[in-house]
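Q: I have two molecules that I believe assemble together. Could you output structure tokens for the complex as a whole instead of separate predictions?
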Amino acid sequence: MISEHLPALQVVVPLLGAVVCAFFTRGDRAWFVALVVSLAMPFIAFGLLLKVLHGGPISYALGGWAPPFGIEYRVDILNAYVLVLVSVIGAVIMPYAKRSVEHEIEADKQAWFYTIYLLCLCGLLGIAITGDAFNAFVFMEVSSLATYALIAMGRDRRALLAAYQYLIMGTIGATFYVIGVGLLYSMTGTLNLADMANRIAGIENSRAVLAALAFLTVGISLKLALFPLHVWLPNAYAYAPSMATVFLSATATKVAVYLLLRYFFTVFGVTVIYADLPISEIFLLLSLAAMFGASIVAVFQQNVKRMLAYSSVAQIGYITLGIAIANKTGLTGGIVHLFNHALMKAALFMAIGAIFYRIGSVKIDDLAGIGKRMPMTAGAFVVAGLSLIGVPGTVGFISKWYLGLGAFQQGWWWLVMLIVLSSVISIIYVGRVVEVIWFRDVAPASRRAKDPPLSMLLPMLLLTAATIYFGFDTVLTAGIAELAAEWLLAGVR
Amino acid sequence: MISTAPFLIFFAGALLAGVTRGLARSVLMVALPIVGAFNLYAMGEGVHLQLPILDYELTIVRADRLSMLFGYLFHLAAFLGIIFSLHLKDTLQHVSGLIYAGSALGAVFAGDLITLFVFWELMAVSSVFLILARGTERSYGASMRYLLVQVLSGVILLSGVLVHAYQSGGIAFNAIGLNGLAGWLIFLAFGIKCCFPFLHNWLTDAYPEATPTGTVFLSAFTTKVAVYALARGYAGTELLVYIGATMAMFPIFFAVIENDLRRVLAYSLINQVGFMVCGIGIGTALAVNGAIAHAFNDVVFKGLLFMTMGAVLMRTGKINGSELGGLYKSMPFTAGFCIVGAASISAFPLFSGFVSKSMVMVAALEEGHPLVWLALLFASAGVFHHAGIKIPFFAFFSHDSGIRVKEAPRNMLIAMGLAAAICIFNGSYPWALYSMLPYPVDYAPYTWAHILTQCQLLFFSALAFCWLKLTGLYPPELSGINIDAEWSYRKALPAIARWIVSVGGAIRLNALTRMQRRLERFLGQIYRHHGPEGTLARTWPTGSMAFWTTLLLCAYLLVYFF
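A: Yes, here they are, computed for all two components at once.
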């Protein structure tokens, strides 16, 4: 039956789609293939999620080779959630992609753009779904190489430098990752993550395993842009094509966070992470540095895309803060923020992408008064921006609520104050843009602008509405995140 | 019967008002509070709307006697305010006024603290436009200060709610009491909105700077929501008795010397709220009834007074007592309504203030607070003085300023007339109001003792005014800005700073410049590291990126190993 092969389909369909796209020369046909593939992904992901919720983790032996020797695809509550996140974002942004890509990418490269995009999607879904350490590395490389190419397609000449820097940094990260995996393999003799978790028991404190953990931590931290390894991110997001920025900001770092959670909690286990090693303290420090450092940088940015990129670094700080808080509520906050941040940041980048589509600039001065010309777009920006601040009634509040509550339960009063304080900084950088786009006189650059075509507007408004909707109905987001957090902390191996 | 959450009607109305124009909008806006009141009637008491969110069950609408009374009151206030502002063409003011009224309704029907917080902030954000819409530089400054304080109050409320939820595990909005950090934080948040002494500046700062119609809205909702919240959460807290008494007294001095007549009313608003706070603090059935009844009456007569002053301001463009006078010739109806409002606020028998204010005072005596009773008595005399005599006297009589204008527009006259009628009705037939109060009322306002006491008070107060005026001892109306507790930050701090500078001038390196230099250096550092060219913001060379990554790896290895 086809439902048994859902795990394989989740990865194979985009891969095949990429191959098909490569045969087209016309962008719109490639777009159509990518659209169909992207729209199919959420169905598979939700199917998997439902199966996991009802029947527990799914194990799928790829090619019929039984684990631990063959490659195992393993879906549990945590990665089913990540799969849903990535595939939903991938699907929602595809209608948006057409006009934006036509506008920003040269005609003969559009088909390639969709090819690479599908490869990237395939890689990200692959990292999330696989239960094999080395297979994850392969998918990490697939997605990373695709990402470098996506970024390099940006119109701005600085995109090339950004892509090159990310190439270097990403390769270092991947190398560290594979060194870590190699060390683990040498100690445990397996590459299957579940198997590895069993065999690691008893040798957790050996030098080689600890070194492996260090390599994995740094390697994955690079991918998820944890402060101070975030330096590749702002330029990459700022100069990549709008569509690529939307997709990457919403999914790429999230998948890396997932991988970190996977290693920390299911391979090494709660005791190693929290009791034996000071990971909680380190992550606390780095998260706070990200929340404040990157936020303050965002305040001074003139390029709105780059500002949002720095805000992403800060928001990743909230996610890793959930790991640092080290109790169920805090971890729930971190995991739910994966989803919530994806929603709002995608909406924000879409809005700024739509503005770029109309006026060809993302400089804050050129955006003056654009709210009067593009009210829907600017309205979406404001709502998603409020969510970024964490105003009640938006998803941002839900995340911060859980984080704050988790900090309370830990007895960390000061941390609650710091979370609130960092939100104040986000009020400044969001407020600065809101002030310019709504309350200034219309800039000459945007005198003729109007809201983008419906194909761009609707996905943007959909995500914006979702930031409000999931601010009230938290069954799907926080409910599943809570289950996942519980499951991770129970030390299920 | 079909009913819905009261605030939804107003929010929907605000949406519709945003897209309609002219007559359609007028009809819509006038119909809105009427529909709302019917909805309230159909809804009845009980818990009506619950929404599960996170781990909590939000009670969006919880109606009991207390919230119902405020619900009807706010519908009435919105009705009067809407009629009063019908002549406006300003969509922004209409829409924000409706959202503001709806948020106030949401707040009084909130059954849990989180819902309360949401509406608390919505009120702040929606009402600020009523001040901004004035369009002057001063109103811009005042509105920003106003917003800052209001949002601060909301943030304090939220932190209190968080602590409360964490400590007690519940978010239901019932009696809270002053125990523990949570109680104090929430108390402080309520206190800011309620204008506790030293926390009151936002009101006297912002309300007089709002538009003529905006102030009418503002005076009705924000402080009354705070009174409601105190009555719900802190009834019987003794501290409130003394806070209330202070609030009733201190504004008198400022009101007497203030020149801007709407600012005089703002002070007297604090003074009236003082009576309510005091009643809530006493906490007996009579006192709380009195406080709530007084809130009801205050909304109407204070609204009426602000309306008359708004009409004067709109017609003449002036509001300072020293520049007005003799207006009764050109605005006779407004002058008449103003006198009714003044009589009500001064608690003349047969006017509405009389039947509610005395409840609080009697309760103060009964509960053994003779000093508080004296304070309230003094405050009553003061009210008569500054609100009862000063407002109508300087605006409409006094020396003729020579200003000749048209009478207020018809819609304003209708609103003022309705308010005046309610004042007289409530004063002459208080039992309708009494029957709505949270506790059964066993109180007779019209005893000889009450009437005589009050008349003595009023007559001697009037005598004092006349004597002062005739002997020329009355403080002249100066066209200046009076500063009260703002003194601390508008005068004292700069003065101290100057003193430090003058002392430090001799020593050269004084603390202030050092602090200033340190602050500059601190900001410079932030800018250096975070600004566009800062370490954290500029594009790093690829090599140093790789170097730092390696360094971090070494750090991790060291930490993990040891």
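A: One point stands out. DSSP finds 20 helices and two strands in chain A.
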